[in-house]
Amino acid sequence: MDIKEKLLFRAPPWLKNLMISAYGWLEQRKRYGSFYRKNYQQLSLLMQATPEAVLAYHSKRLRELLHEAITYSPWYSAVFQQNGVTADMVANEPPLDILGRLPLLEKTTLKTRTEEVMSANPAREAFTTVSTSGTSGSPMKVVFDAEGRQGTYAEWRRYHDWLGLPEKFHSVRFSGRIIVDPATTRSPFWAHNWPDCQLFMSAYHLKKDYLPFYVEKLSSFKPDLIDGYPSAVYILARYLLRTKTRLPFQPTAISLTAETLMEHQRKTIEQAFGCKVYNQYASSEGAPWIVECSQGNYHLWLDTGVFEFINRQELDSETDVAELVVTSFRNFKTPLIRYRIGDYVQLYKKPVQCDCGAPYPIIRGIIGRNDDILFTHEKGSVGRLDPAYKGVEGIQKSKIVQYTPEEVAVYLVPEEGFDDSQKLLLIHNLKERLGSKLSISIKIVDDIPPGKNGKLKSVERRFQLPET
Ligand SMILES: [Zn+2]
C-alpha cells in the first residue's frame, strides 16, 4: 500500500470525501476533451451499425495501429522487420494477414521492455499511467496518451448506454481499492466522489455486523448502477434475501467484473436487487472489451480491438475453451499487438447468433485466468465449476483449490443452512464434473481473504497443465 492510500484511508470521513471528490473533479477535466467527443460519437454510431460496417472500421483501425507501431515503436519496428513485414506492406496488404505474421507479445516483455514497446510519436505525449492489479506477480504500469485516456471514458459511456443508463446517474462501486482503514470497526465504510455522483463502498468490511449499515446507506443513496467484484455484491445480496429486506430502490443494472462470475452468484444478486446482472471484461492495460447483452450473450466489441484464440481445447459437446490473445485499438501510446493477456474464454463450436441486434459476434463466456481451469485424468480440462454449487444451500464464500490432478479442496465459509446433506451434495456435484476417482475435501474456514489485488479467486489450480 502506498503513502497516498494510507493518508486517504486514515483521513476522517469529511476529509476523505473531499479528497476523493477533488480527484474526481480533476479526472473529469481530463476526461471530457475533443478526443472524448469524437470517440464517443464514432462508437455510438458503430453500436447501431451493421456487422460489415464494424468490420470495415476494425480493419481501418488495425492498419492505423500497425502503422503507428512500425513507425514509432523501436520494439515493434524491429519485430516487424525480423518477420519480413515492411511499412509498404502495412500500407497496402490486408491488415489481418500482416497480424498473422507477427509473434505473440508476452507479459514479461511488456513489463521489462515497456519503454521500447511504447510509441515515440511526438504527437502522443504521455498523459496517464495506469497500474494493473497484477493477478500473478508484480503489477505493471501502462502509459496512455490523451487520445487513449479520453477514448477509454468514451467506451465507458457507450457501455453505460448499452446498460440503459441516463447521462447522469448514481453509482456504487465495490472494488479492491482500500478506501476505509481495514482495521476500523465503525461506519462509514464508504466515501463519496460527488462530481461523479459515485459512492465507493469498501469490499473489506462486508461482515455480518456491518451489513445493516451498508443496506441503510444504499437505501438512502439509491444507486442506478452497482458495479464491482461479484464476491462483494454477492455477500450483500445473500444478506438481503436472508433478512427478507425489500430495498426502496431498484437499480437499472448491476455490472460485475474482474473475478469469475458464477451462475449461483448471478441468480442471487438478480433476485435480491431485482435487476439484471451484466458481466463485463476489459483490462486496465487496455484490452478490448467483451460485454454481456440484455439476452445474456457475450459480445466481442470488435471496434475496440482484435480477438484471437489459441490453445483451443474441447470443453463439452457444444463448446471449447481457449486462451485469449488481444490486439487493442484503445491505446496507441503503448501498442498491444497479439498480446498474450493470460485470460481464457469459452467459445461455441458452431457460430451462434444473438437476437439483441448488436453488430458484434458472441462467445459463450469468460472463464478467467489460466489457473481457473482445472484438470483431471478422467475428465481432461474443466473450465467452469460454478454449476457444482447449484442447489447447495448455506455458502457465503468459497474457493476451490486443486493441488494435484487427484486432489481438490473446497474452502468454505458456511452460513445458516449448510449441513452434512449440503456437503454431500456439493461433493457429488463436483465429482460429476471432475470425475469419481478424485479426492475432494471440504474445509470449513472463518474467512477467505482476497488476494493482494483485492480479488477473490474462486477456482485455482496449483500445478502446470499437461502440454496438449
Ligand atoms: Zn446480444
CATH top level of the largest domain?
Alpha Beta
Largest sheet: 9 strands, mixed
Percent of residues in beta strands = 15-25%
CATH superfamily of the largest domain: ANL, N-terminal domain
Structural class determined from secondary elements: alpha/beta
Question: What structural keywords apply?
Answer:
468 residues; Rossmann fold; 2 domains; nine-stranded mixed β-sheet; 24% strand; 14 helices; binds zinc ion; single chain; four-stranded antiparallel β-sheet; alpha/beta; GMP Synthetase, Chain A, domain 3
Structure description:
With 468 residues, this protein is α/β, with parallel strands linked by helices. The protein folds into two domains: 3-297, ANL, N-terminal domain (Rossmann fold); 373-461, 2-Layer Sandwich (GMP Synthetase, Chain A, domain 3), CATH 3.30.300. 35% of the residues lie in helices and 24% in strands. The chain has 14 helices and 21 strands. The chain has helices spanning 3-10, 13-31, 34-47, 51-72, 74-82, 87-92, 95-101, 107-112, 114-117, 146-162, 211-221, 230-242, 263-273, 420-434; strands spanning 128-131, 141-144, 171-175, 190-193, 198-202, 225-228, 253-256, 277-281, 290-292, 298-300, 305-314, 319-328, 339-348, 362-363, 365-369, 374-376, 380-382, 395-404, 407-414, 439-444, 459-461. The chain has a nine-stranded mixed beta sheet with strand order 4-5-3-6-7-8-9-10-14. It has a four-stranded antiparallel beta sheet with strand order 11-12-13-15. A hairpin with an 8-residue loop joins strand 8 and strand 9. The radius of gyration is 23 Å and the shape is globular. The two termini are 40 Å apart. The structure holds zinc ion. Zinc ion binds next to loops.
